[in-house]
């Protein structure tokens, strides 16, 4: 059964962070619920809905930005006390808006995640977890990577305090006191945790997680180990998950799972629908918070969502077009008319206010004591590597409409097509020599575009900076510059383990460097490595190349580092970059390596199927125009061979795929050429003069001939 939900916009506050909106419990059997939200202007707004209008209950004064908002109270009583995290401080308010708590924690950083259970308060900064009971420090834990969210299993069911941390390195860390009980490996970096069914299920041990690459899963956290229950992949390439709630919106007595994503998608999953949601609703901007309840009208349940730019909207089960006699229609139209006239008055007042403020600004800017004021605006940005197509997604979201975005890079990058992108792109020719400009492109956005998604693909071994200049439609014109590092091994992604049976090449470094220094070099070379130096004396990280599927193992400690990979080009890039970084710091490195001849053949076998596929695709695309001309002249194509007929039938898909992957074939040619040069570089031979011969063999697409050429 698909629910029929209508969208209602209630109110707009300032820009909101993840998990900063909650519904207060209803005070009576038939009462509607109040909404409480905290924004980045530091304002807490609590309101209810009467006759379709938002009626404020209380509103606090602006201050520092609110990073989290949770409800609390004594165990087994209605959770109606409001707690907010502001910087390193936690404040408590009653449902009427009276402040009863101001707790300055001993954290040196701002609070990123918060959970409340009775008198227990669980707080996380970037890497630090703290547990307080009645505002007294109880436990402390230092995580190996950034903490994105924290959750505590229900104490009344589990009978002990079990906090769970969602960490950026694709791991859930389950704690007991100040100690790590065990780790749970996940398919992606978890961004949000929620109790299954809102209460942890029958056992109280079930938690639902959402990842930044859009996967959803449920795992049972027992006292000794985790039991994975189910997992839903992200086949449709939706956005990352920011918020999760459980609520019975279908009215069938079973709670559904409500999911909000950063591409503006709200999804409802029930247990019959398995992997596919029962309903999807597309907003234009990312969903920061989501909760089910009864807000607009008594008796009609709805899903309330808070978007990044501060809109509080409902998806309600209340029918918009009421059925009934003419009297009810008349009543509705009168209600509508009064609403429309009040909106018109409000609009007129706003227009007058804007004109007054504009005159005021013009006068002050022309006076002798004029100071130029640049309007501040916040940008929500995300730069992540996609495993599926080995490309980087750059998502830019602004609280007002975007006018244009200029993208500039000092390293060669391919801009890929994005289906959802309606902006007009224009390229400028660049001088790569004096300014080291390799990419200059401008995206001109259509009116009311607040979110823009770009895709780029980098070349491993070429590293530098990608810059985005974001200009919104506000006066006076102002622009924000955002910078993103393209790392030497930019297409590598962290993984939990690697295949030990592959033929591996090894690079060994020894020298007078500290653990922190070699860690900083690894951070410079590879994505997804925590910037903070890990605890302990030695660390191992595993990576996989998203483009080729080759792997890398890096183990290092003070004074020595070992890097193993089945791709000799990866080892060559690491050798060049690490020796350059050490030279900058005047550190003498002793570099040795062990090259496995078999690994080159192994890498060629990984590349060859991709090469064959891309060459075949290119050939088919080149034939399309000629075949279409034949079709026009001859009227029918029955005389053609079946393989040519199938090219004509699939022409649109082939062209679409070819357009989506520009320069894919050139990239593969480049990788094979690098592999050839690197193989002989380690033997001390320069083979650059043989490259034209290699390219001829590649055009022939003969796998055995290629391997024989490498062996020669």
Automatic annotation (TrEMBL):
Residues 492-594 form the BBS7 platform domain. Residues 375-484 form the BBS7 GAE domain. GO terms for cellular component: axoneme; BBSome; ciliary basal body; membrane; neuron projection. Residues 21-317 form the BBS7 beta-propeller domain. Residues 597-710 form the BBS7 helical hairpin domain. It comes from the Eukaryota. Keywords: Coiled coil. GO terms for biological process: intracellular protein localization; non-motile cilium assembly. This is BBS7 protein. It comes from Helopsaltes ochotensis (Middendorff's grasshopper-warbler). The gene is Bbs7.
């Amino acid at each position: 059964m698909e629910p029929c939900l209508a969208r209602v916009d209630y109110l707009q506050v300032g820009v909101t962070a993840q998990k900063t909106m909650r519904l207060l419990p209803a005070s009576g059997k038939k009462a509607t619920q109040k909404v409480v939200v905290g924004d980045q202007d530091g304002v807490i707004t609590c309101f209810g809905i009467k006759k379709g209008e938002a009626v404020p209950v209380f509103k606090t004064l602006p201050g520092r930005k609110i990073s989290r908002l949770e409800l609390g109270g004594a165990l087994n009583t209605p959770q109606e006390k409001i707690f907010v995290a502001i910087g390193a401080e936690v404040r408590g308010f009653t449902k009427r808006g009276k402040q009863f708590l101001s707790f300055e924690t001993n954290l040196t950083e701002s609070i990123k995640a918060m959970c409340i259970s009775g008198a227990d308060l669980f707080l996380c900064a970037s890497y630090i977890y703290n547990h307080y009971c009645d505002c007294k420090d109880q436990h402390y834990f230092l995580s190996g990577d950034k903490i994105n969210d924290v959750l505590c299993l229900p104490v009344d069911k589990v009978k002990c305090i079990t906090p769970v941390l969602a960490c950026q390195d694709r791991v859930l860390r389950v704690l007991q006191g100040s100690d790590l009980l065990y780790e749970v490996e996940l398919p992606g970096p978890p961004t949000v945790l929620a109790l299954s069914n809102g209460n942890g299920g029958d056992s109280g041990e079930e938690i639902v997680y959402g990842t930044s690459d859009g996967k959803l899963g449920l795992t049972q956290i027992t006292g000794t180990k985790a039991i994975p229950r189910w997992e839903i992949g992200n086949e449709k390439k939706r956005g990352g998950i920011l918020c999760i709630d459980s609520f019975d919106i279908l009215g069938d007595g079973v709670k559904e799972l409500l999911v909000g994503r950063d591409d503006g998608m709200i999804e409802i999953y029930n247990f019959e629908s398995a992997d596919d949601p029962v309903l999807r609703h597309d907003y234009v901007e990312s969903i920061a918070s989501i909760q089910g309840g009864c807000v607009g009208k008594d008796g009609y349940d709805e899903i309330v969502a808070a978007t990044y730019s501060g809109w509080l909207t409902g998806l309600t089960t209340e029918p918009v077009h009421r059925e009934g006699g003419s009297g009810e229609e008349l009543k509705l139209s009168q209600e509508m008319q009064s609403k429309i006239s009040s909106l018109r008055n409000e609009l007129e007042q706003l227009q007058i206010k804007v004109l007054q403020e504009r005159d005021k600004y013009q006068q002050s800017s022309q006076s002798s004591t004029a100071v130029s004021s640049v309007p501040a605006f916040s940008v929500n940005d995300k730069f992540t590597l996609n495993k599926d197509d080995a490309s980087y997604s750059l998502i830019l979201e602004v609280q007002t409409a975007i006018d244009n975005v200029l993208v500039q890079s000092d390293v060669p990058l391919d801009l890929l097509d994005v289906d959802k992108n309606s902006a007009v792109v224009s390229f400028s020719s660049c001088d790569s020599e004096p300014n080291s400009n390799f990419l200059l492109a401008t995206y001109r956005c259509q009116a009311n575009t607040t979110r823009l998604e770009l895709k780029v693909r980098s070349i491993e071994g070429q590293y530098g900076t990608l810059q985005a200049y974001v200009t919104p439609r506000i006066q006076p014109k102002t622009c924000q510059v955002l910078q993103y590092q393209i790392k030497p091994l930019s297409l590598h992604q962290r993984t939990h383990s690697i295949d030990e049976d592959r033929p591996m090449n090894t690079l060994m470094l020894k020298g007078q460097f500290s653990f922190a220094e070699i860690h900083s070099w690894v951070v410079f070379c590879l994505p997804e490595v925590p910037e903070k130096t890990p605890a302990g004396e030695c660390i191992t990280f595993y990576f996989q190349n998203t483009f080729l599927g080759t792997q890398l193992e890096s183990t290092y400690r003070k004074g020595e580092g070992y890097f193993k990979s089945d791709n000799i080009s990866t080892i060559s890039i690491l050798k060049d970059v690490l020796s350059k970084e050490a030279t900058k710091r005047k550190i003498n490195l002793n570099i040795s390596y062990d090259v496995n001849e078999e690994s080159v053949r192994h890498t060629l076998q990984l590349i060859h199927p991709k090469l064959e596929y891309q060459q075949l695709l290119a050939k088919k695309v080149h034939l399309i125009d000629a075949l279409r001309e034949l079709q026009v002249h001859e009227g029918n194509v029955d005389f053609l061979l079946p393989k040519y007929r199938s090219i004509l039938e699939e022409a649109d898909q082939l062209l679409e795929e070819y357009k989506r992957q520009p320069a894919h074939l050139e990239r593969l040619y480049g990788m094979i050429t690098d592999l050839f040069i690197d193989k002989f570089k380690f033997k001390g031979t320069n083979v650059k003069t043989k490259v034209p011969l290699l390219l001829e063999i590649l055009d022939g697409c003969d796998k055995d001939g290629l391997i024989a050429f490498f062996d020669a």
